């Protein structure tokens, strides 16, 4: 409960933690802006005192004083920028830790976003806002009225000229926001499309090459690039136009103030020093005002980031509260409660009201024809599919709400078509742990019966593989994926479509591995199209039309399957025979194992 409450308020706490830094930066901004008044004061004194008194001593003293103040100004300005950069970094570090620690499985790599957890984009956006100069612009804008007040003190007419200038700049900023908003979005989308295409090409490089798909992809590539280029040029044109307008407006206001000052000086209402100082002050006012207006869209963006982040944290905190309220201290087991899952494509039910209770140390086999939903069922247990009804509970907790670290301890998953991450075999087995334990890596490989094969490679466990494991055979890929699934000694081992080669080539070793895991209390869930006939399976289920029914024995499951397949009655009929190449190279004919091909 407490951790849920802390999570909910963690963004505010992270800002509060940097409160001292933020306040210091704000106060430094005040000092910086006060010191900036030194320039106009210097001008007034030069024109009105030094030139009239012709005193070189005064001039030297003033120059020394101003130089000293400018030096302090530089140091303070630099210091506030450093402070804000640290504030942003501290906020990001704190929030990233919180998000990664509390991320649920369904929050990881969501919506194809490149970030590993939901909320990290928002944190990144806020960090950028804190230290990219936006806060400096806000602070300077807050102190800008100080300069306006000084101009008003010099002469009210000059003050109003400044205010008019600020109005024009505000109008330009509003126009810019209206014209540029959509264009920026379009340009971002167009360059995003190019990046997406690039990622697709990188991921499917071999297929594109082997199928000569370049012919199809090249025009797409050109089209995407052209669109990105055109949008970026259009955006650049508009940006340049507004930048120029803003610069010209500043100059116009500045010269208007100079002209007004000159007029007032001619009329004897202003000194020459005050006239020059007013011109200088206008720049000091319009600069921060302009920068502030430019930052307005970023401020709205930051506000959205903040709102989204606090919503994400609140949702996660709510989930945590629910979890602990549901079944505190429930005994270890996997429970599926009336689980239903719909296809995101068609909306049709893939799984219908599935219920199952499985305990530690059980070996459960689920059979079913192709497309009956075996993979979907396993991946729903893993928390990767959205359920339309029901729940998957591990020790009373929803699987989708386990954190990444918790899920890693609970599950070991050997998928039907294993995929890897480009890196070494050791990194892949250990799930890219920062410092993999060689002992554990070796043991996992041994249990997957792959240790000797890996050691025989020139680089052994340091052998680099790509995402598809192209340098490995299909069997080795499967073994590697099994080793990866076993690395963390999972409580639940999930094997989708057990590889037929495992049964043909190393049935005894497979049995040793699986029975050892069973004895250690690992719950093993396996799927196969046909019953595997392992002999050490505790319970058999049949998945048909999205419904899971328990079978009394493997043979009845098999019978059911035959009925389902509408296959010719096969009582007493011999199983088809297949040619098997043995390790010594000899070829023999054997009954086809009762497993599905991948
Ligand atoms: N990502 C997805 N999006 C939409 N539908 C999907 C997705 N993955 C699977 N399906 C659909 O869900 C149904 C069940 O698929 P699933 O992969 O679970 O079957 P299976 O029983 O494991 O089949 P096989 O034995 O051939 O692997 C299929 O009709 C499939 O088209």
TrEMBL record:
Residues 589-598 have a biased composition (Basic and acidic residues). The chain crosses the membrane at residues 20-47, 59-79, 135-152, 158-179, 255-282. One of its GO terms (molecular function) is ABC-type oligopeptide transporter activity. Residues 549-598 are annotated as: Disordered. It is found in: Cell membrane. InterPro entries: ABC1_TM_dom, ABC1_TM_sf, ABC_transporter-like_ATP-bd, P-loop_NTPase, Type_1_exporter. Keywords: ATP-binding, Membrane, Nucleotide-binding, Transmembrane, Transmembrane helix. Residues 25-301 form the ABC transmembrane type-1 domain. It comes from the Bacteria. Pfam families: ABC_membrane (PF00664), ABC_tran (PF00005). This is ATP-binding cassette, subfamily C. It comes from Marinovum algicola.
């Amino acid at each position: 409960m407490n951790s849920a409450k802390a999570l909910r308020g963690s963004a505010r706490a992270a800002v509060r933690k940097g409160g001292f830094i933020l306040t210091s930066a704000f106060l430094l901004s005040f000092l910086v802006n006060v010191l900036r008044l030194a320039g106009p004061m210097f001008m007034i004194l030069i024109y009105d005192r030094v030139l009239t008194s012709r005193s070189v001593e005064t001039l030297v003293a003033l120059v020394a004083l101003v130089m000293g103040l400018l030096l302090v100004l530089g140091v303070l300005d630099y210091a506030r920028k450093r402070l804000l950069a640290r504030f942003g970094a501290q906020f990001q570090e704190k929030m990233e830790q919180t998000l990664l620690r509390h991320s649920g499985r369904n929050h990881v790599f969501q919506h194809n976003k490149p970030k590993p957890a939901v909320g990290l984009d928002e944190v990144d956006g806020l960090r950028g806002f804190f230290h990219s100069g936006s806060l400096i612009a806000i602070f300077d804008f807050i102190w800008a009225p100080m300069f306006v007040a000084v101009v008003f003190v010099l002469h009210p007419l000059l003050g109003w000229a400044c205010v008019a200038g600020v109005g024009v700049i505000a109008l330009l900023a509003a126009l810019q926001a209206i014209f540029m908003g959509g264009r920026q979005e379009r340009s971002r989308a167009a360059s995003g499309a190019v990046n997406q295409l690039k990622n697709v090409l990188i991921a499917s490089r071999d297929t594109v090459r082997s199928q000569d798909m370049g012919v199809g992809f090249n025009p797409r590539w050109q089209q995407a690039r052209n669109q990105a280029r055109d949008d970026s040029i259009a955006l650049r044109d508009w940006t340049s136009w507004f930048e120029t307008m803003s610069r010209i407006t500043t100059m116009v206001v500045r010269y208007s103030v100079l002209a007004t000052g000159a007029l007032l000086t001619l009329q004897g209402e202003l000194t020459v020093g005050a006239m020059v100082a007013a011109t200088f002050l206008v720049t000091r006012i319009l600069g921060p005002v302009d920068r502030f207006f430019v930052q307005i869209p970023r401020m709205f963006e930051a506000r959205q980031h903040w709102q989204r982040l606090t919503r994400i944290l609140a949702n996660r905190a709510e989930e945590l509260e629910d979890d602990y309220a549901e079944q505190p201290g429930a005994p270890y087991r996997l429970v599926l409660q009336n689980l239903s899952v719909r296809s995101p494509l068609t909306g049709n039910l893939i799984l219908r009201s599935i219920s199952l209770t499985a305990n530690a140390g059980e070996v459960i086999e689920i059979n079913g024809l192709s497309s009956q939903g075996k993979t979907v069922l396993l991946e729903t247990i893993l928390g990767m599919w959205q359920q339309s009804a029901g729940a998957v509970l591990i020790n009373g907790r929803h699987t989708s709400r386990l954190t990444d670290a918790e899920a890693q301890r609970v599950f070991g998953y050997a998928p039907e078509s294993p995929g890897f991450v480009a890196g070494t075999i050791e990194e892949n087995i250990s799930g890219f742990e920062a410092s993999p334990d060689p002992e554990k890596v070796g043991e996992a490989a041994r249990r997957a019966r792959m240790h000797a094969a890996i050691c025989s490679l020139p680089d052994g466990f340091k052998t680099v593989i790509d995402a598809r494991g192209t340098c490995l055979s299909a069997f080795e890929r499967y073994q590697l994926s099994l080793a990866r699934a076993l690395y963390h000694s999972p409580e639940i081992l999930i094997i989708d479509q057990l590889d037929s080669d495992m049964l043909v080539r190393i049935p005894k070793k497979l049995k040793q591995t699986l029975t050892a895991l069973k004895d250690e209390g690992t719950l093993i869930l396996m799927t196969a199209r046909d019953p595997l006939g392992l002999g050490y399976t505790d319970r058999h289920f049949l998945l048909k039309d999205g419904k899971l029914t328990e079978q009394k024995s493997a043979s009845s499951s098999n019978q059911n399957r035959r009925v389902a397949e509408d296959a010719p009655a096969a009582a007493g009929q011999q199983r088809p025979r297949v040619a098997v190449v043995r390790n010594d190279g000899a070829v023999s004919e054997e009954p086809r194992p009762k497993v599905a091909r991948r």
